[in-house]
Amino acid sequence: xxxxxxxxxxxxxxxxxxxxxxxxxxxxxxxxxxxxxxxxxxxxxxxxxxxxxxxxxxxxxxxxxxxxxxxxxxxxxxxxxxxxxxxxxxxxxxxxxxxxxxxxxxxxxxxxxxxxxxxxxxxxxxxxxxxxxxxxxxxxxxxxxxxxxxxxxxxxxxxxxxxxxxxxxxxxxxxxxxxxxx
Length: 182
Prior knowledge:
Elements: E1 5-6, E2 15-16, H1 29-35, H2 40-46, H3 63-77, E3 85-86, H4 88-96, H5 102-116, E4 121-122, H6 129-132, H7 141-159, H8 164-171, H9 175-181
Parallel strand pairs: 3-4
Antiparallel strand pairs: 1-2
């Protein structure tokens, strides 16, 4: 990379290339170098221009725009599904979540909701359990009840290794009722 040439394994002559390498990490490379777990000379070669981007939880004001962007991209990819709209309560819940997986986690959640939602309006009650139960004191009574129901259902499904009929039996509900919630 440094000299913009390489030689193929088994090759006899160097090949000239014009490349730029972009790398990203959430690791503290300085600490890794200090412990001997990352090569200092590699770090020096890679560190031509460094851009530090704070985690999503430190720039929550970007979340509504990111949601809008991901929905627009999904609409372009899957126009037959139509467009989806997130309610204010859903956006507020997504904004208040810590996002340990950063933008990649947010994107995955948006994609899952977009593809699975039937009425094209995504409510806070439809958000994944980890988002809605991150702060159990927040939300309306109905949202809290829905989060509790989800917890019961997911726990039963986990205990039965995904067997929906058995999970429904353990919860004292019909298979159809479980499918309605699940």
